[in-house]
Design a protein that fits this description.
Elements (H helix, E strand, L loop, with lengths): L30 H9 L4 E6 L2 E5 L5 E6 L2 E5 L7 H11 L4 E5 L5 H4 L2 H6 L3 E5 H7 L3 E3 L4 E3 L10 E3 L2 E6 L2 E7 L9 E5 L4 E3 L20 H14 L5 E3 L8 H23 L4 H6 L7 H4 L6 H11 L1
Helix pairs in contact: 6-7, 7-10
C-alpha cells in the first residue's frame, strides 16, 4: 500500500514506554523494546476506592481489588515486569493473589499470565482470548508476531457473552464487546464501587489501535464504549486500557471522535474512493493535533476505519 509509509508511530508513551524506547520510524514494534523497558519499570499505584487500586507501568493499565478473598487483578502487563508488579501488589497489603482477568489477548495485557498463575492466580477471560493465546498470532499493523503462551498462562475459565464473578463480597460484571479492539475484548464493572475498567476499548487521549487482523472494527469499538458510558455517572472512576485515569466526559469525547472518524471515512468510501485516496484526503486533519499523539496517527485510524466499514 503506497500510503503505508506514512503510518508511522509518533510515540509509544500510551503503552508506558519511555521516550528512549520509541522507534524512530516505521510501524514496527519488537517485544524486546517492551521487555527492556518492563524490566526497569517502576509501578505507579493509585488508590481508586476502598480496596481498589490502579497500577500503571509498561503495558496496559492494571486494576487490583483486595479483600477477604485475596487479590483480584485485571490484566498483568509484561513478564519482564512481573517482579515489579508483584512487589507493588505486596506493598498494598499481604493478601494473596487469587484471580486474574484478561481484558483481551494482546501481550501488553497478558504476557505475565504465567507469572501471575505461578503466584497463585487462576485466570479468567473470554473464550476467544484463550483461543488466541493458545495459538500463534500476528498484529499486522506493527509487523509483530506473537508466540502462544505456555499452558500455565492460558485462561482456566472462560465465558462467551457475559459473566459475573463473585469475589470479595462483590458481584463483578464482565461484558464481552464483540469485534471491537479485537474479537476477545471484555470490560469489567465494579458496581458496588462505581469503577469500570474498559480494557483497550479506550485509549485515553489517543487514537486507538484497532486490531483488524484479530477481529477489531471501529463500529464495535463505538458500541463497546457506548455500553461503558451507559453504566457510568459523574462519580465513576473509569480506567482506560492505556492513558491516565478517566472521567465520563472524557469517555464521551473519545466516542464522539471515533464516531466522527467512522462517519467521514464511510462517506468517502461510499463515494468509491480507494484506501489510498481516503488517506490522502486526510479526513482526520482537524483532530490529529489532539488525538494523534500516541502510537496511532490520523492515517492509521483512517485505515482501520476504512478496512472495517
Amino acid at each position: 500500500m503506497a500510503a503505508g509509509a506514512s503510518l508511522f508511530l509518533p510515540s509509544l508513551r500510551a503503552w508506558g514506554l519511555p521516550p528512549e524506547n520509541e522507534p524512530v520510524h516505521g510501524p514496527h514494534i519488537t517485544l524486546q523494546q517492551f521487555t527492556t523497558a518492563a524490566a526497569k519499570e517502576k509501578i505507579r499505584t493509585t488508590r481508586l476506592r476502598n480496596g481498589i487500586y490502579l497500577l500503571q507501568g509498561v503495558g496496559g493499565n492494571v486494576v487490583c481489588q483486595t479483600g477477604k478473598d485475596g487479590k483480584m487483578l485485571i490484566d498483568c502487563q509484561f513478564s519482564a515486569g512481573a517482579p515489579h508488579l508483584l512487589a507493588a501488589l505486596n506493598a498494598i497489603d499481604s493478601k494473596p493473589l487469587r484471580l486474574l482477568i484478561n481484558t483481551h489477548w494482546h501481550l501488553d495485557h497478558t504476557n505475565a499470565n504465567p507469572d501471575m498463575h505461578k503466584a497463585g492466580a487462576r485466570i479468567f477471560a473470554h473464550v476467544n482470548c484463550r483461543k488466541r493465546l493458545a495459538t500463534p498470532q500476528r498484529i499486522d499493523f506493527y509487523n509483530l508476531d506473537v508466540a502462544p503462551l505456555p499452558p500455565a498462562g492460558l485462561p482456566m475459565e472462560t465465558f462467551t457473552t457475559a459473566a459475573t464473578v463473585d469475589f470479595n463480597g462483590e458481584n463483578h460484571s464482565l461484558q464481552h464487546t464483540p469485534r471491537a479492539h479485537t474479537d476477545t475484548d471484555l470490560f469489567v464493572h465494579f458496581p458496588n464501587h462505581n469503577v469500570i475498567h474498559t480494557g483497550d476499548l479506550w485509549f485515553n487521549g489517543y487514537y486507538p489501535l484497532i486490531d483488524v487482523g484479530t477481529g477489531g472494527t471501529i463500529h464495535g469499538m463505538i458500541h463497546g464504549v457506548d455500553r461503558c458510558i451507559a453504566l457510568a455517572d459523574s462519580q465513576t472512576k473509569i480506567v482506560p486500557g492505556h492513558g491516565k485515569l478517566g472521567t465520563l466526559p472524557e469517555l464521551k469525547t473519545y466516542v464522539q471522535m471515533l464516531t466522527t472518524v467512522a462517519d467521514r471515512v464511510e462517506k468517502l468510501k461510499h463515494e468509491g474512493k480507494s484506501l489510498d485516496e481516503v488517506i490522502a484526503a486526510h479526513p482526520t486533519a482537524d483532530m490529529d493535533a489532539v488525538w494523534g499523539k500516541g502510537a496511532t496517527n490520523g492515517d492509521a485510524i483512517t485505515m482501520f476505519a476504512y478496512q472495517t466499514l
